[in-house]
TrEMBL record:
It comes from Pleurotus eryngii (Boletus of the steppes). One of its GO terms (molecular function) is protein dimerization activity. GO terms for biological process: methylation. This is S-adenosyl-L-methionine-dependent methyltransferase. The lineage of its organism: Eukaryota, Fungi, Dikarya, Basidiomycota, Agaricomycotina. InterPro entries: COMT-like, COMT_C, COMT_dimerisation, SAM-dependent_MTases_sf, WH-like_DNA-bd_sf, WH_DNA-bd_sf.
Amino acid sequence: MGAHIPSTGKAQVRALLGLLNTAAEEAIAEYDKKGLDVPFIDNGYAHPMDGRLPSLNFKHAIRTLEGACGQICATLAQPSHTMVNYSMSAFVPASINAAIKAGIAERLSKHPNGLHVNDLAKETSIHPQKLGTLMRLLVTNHCFREVSSNVFANNRLSLTMLPNNANKVCDILELKSGEMHRKATMWLYEALTDPDFGPTYNATRSPLMYALGKEGYSGTLYEYLNTQPGVVESFANAMAGYRSATGHLNLLNVFPWGTLPPNTSVCDLGSGNGNISIEISKHFPQLKITLQDLPETIREAQKFWQTEYSEAVNEGRVTFTPLDFFKESPVPGQDIYYLSQIFHNWGDEHSLALLRNIRRVMIPGSRMLIDDYLAVHLDPASIEKQHASMSRAPRPLSPGFGHGQIRTYTQDFCMLIMCNARERSLEDFVELCAAADLKFVRVWDLAETCLTEFIAV
């Protein structure tokens, strides 16, 4: 952070170009390490690295690359140009959702050389000219390709829309671009300024619940999901897809799981179907895993593990214990209590109740790992004061990496509209955990989310 700041706008752009070039070469080097060429964006087939866990070096390079690109464009273009583009970006997820519902990627997968829009229109029952409008908006965003006039084909990006893909990315695309998020954003301002909804972080007062209240629903997001057939499983798949897209499983490489002694106990709280802990168990079979979530979710988790990793189930290396973690404590005496993207779903009152329930059953040597985004304040002074283990953007990149770290803040917004909650800063977590007699130890930076470690006081 103490690096020289260019004194002119021209010098700043050129410095950003230097960062961009360096980051691009670092990303290219990651392909070289695998003995692979950089893919062409319009390939109609997946590149070998597309389904692999990106290394931390690769994620760091892409973060700087995206940040520098966005900042250069916002600097050189007129503000009105950039802001109008931002205001129209909501059309892209609407097009993604329509393309998924119409099964366009799946249909085009049978036509590697492309399919004419008239034929695609017959299969989807969408007017051909209207379908062409939708497709070209996605093509200009590098999703799908127009191989000749009105003939469309898949490319590497559109392949993520294939249903039941191994990484379940299609599930998260459908969730993020779907009806619930549209309803929540539609009524954002009204919910923020409503005298009942606006002043509180109560989970029943989210913008989503404001919208659903007009249809007769009340409660929280998760209570609503449980009223929708099949949604618990699809939501779990979407979370797995999101974690795949973010390279979240770098936690396997950053946290020293391999040094933990045999039979170390790990309690995955709010586990969902256990799509994270199943990978921990596969890579570190010396660990004893306990999954804890609501009864219906735990039933889905048992099915998932029996299908995906029956060996751990049969050997007794994983157990499944239903729990409402606001009303009762988790299994006592665990070496590690692990919570992945749980606290960002809840306000401080609920979060503190959960923390106290965990603290109540911790023993000397127990550790708690909070796996979540850390939403730092973006002024230079706050960045300077952040924990030493957290990455800092190289000058003159915007503090917080700008577009390179945008998912932290899109997720913060998502938690607001869906759950009436938020992503927290490290200081927020330290203060909240201190109220539950938990002491901060350190941060493990995953180049997007972070593992934050606490112990009992």
